[in-house]
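User: I'll paste a sequence; please echo it back and then give the predicted structure.

Assistant: Echoing your sequence first, then the prediction.
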Amino acid sequence: MQIDRTVVESSRKDLKIVVSIYSLPANLRKNDNKRRGITLFLVHGSGFHKEIWEPIIQKLFSYKSSSWYVEKAIAFDAVNHGDSAILNREKLANEHYTPWFIHARDIIAIVRQLQRQNICLKSPQSIIGIGHSWGADALLLSESICPLTFSCLVATEAILHLRFVQDHAYFAAVRKRRWTWKNEDDAKEYFTSRKFFNSWDKRCLELYIKHGMESVDGKLALKCRPHNEAAVYAGGDYPAMYATLYLWKIRCPTAFLIGGKSVQCPFKYISKITECMPDRRLSVMDNAGHLLVLENPDLAAEKYSLLLDEMVPRAHARLSLDICKAKL
């Protein structure tokens, strides 16, 4: 894959967002008039970073569908995560509450800026949003706030609540998590010994260490500091409830990918609360939990591919009709 990097403006003043644009090398690109070229827009979960998506992106580039092919894939680091966190370190040093609404607003800002740079098409008909956990909620919020930003969405393990939720004990635990190590070997030894991490695909763990850390005073440190990660969890109180209560506003085809062993997003619960949506579908990834994109990225990519086979043709037809209506 070819990877290009750019920096765009956050919706908040003086904050920057680092974006990676993935594409095939020129000699491997094929002009295909029979299939629709799509742009994937991928949004990571809290505590992670854009490179976590790379195993899935590689699989989706190679997938052979009769109706679509991946032209580009776009992934970015949220303002307090990954490479963006380094650029915004001083400005976010004391931020302990990061509303998810702002993340949704940033998504809209990124899409608009990339459209102006001709990196994304100005029509939403080929932009597919795929998000995990916090990232899934942010996509749902962005589409409910600004309809027709995306042609369709895949919300993976979305955090959906029907009431206000805050878990102060969990926030405190996240703030106290370890965030520095002597070197890369020390970090690998630590992560592979922890239950939370040892179920991950090896590629994802390697990417997490390689791209999720920076050198600070001779040590390796998480780019997303514990207080930044805790701020994101704290900021989901009202937005997660809002995202749930306003699911009915989302007109584009939307799929929910759920881990069969997920505690956060049980299938029956997600099935019930998404019934209000005009065009939704559910898919279950057996023997996977909340972190399914990290546990088995190959199977996750296969699930995404099958969902896109169903949704891309439908999304194009629906959006064409919506845009025509908007012009009347």
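The chain has a mean pLDDT of 93. The radius of gyration is 19 Å.
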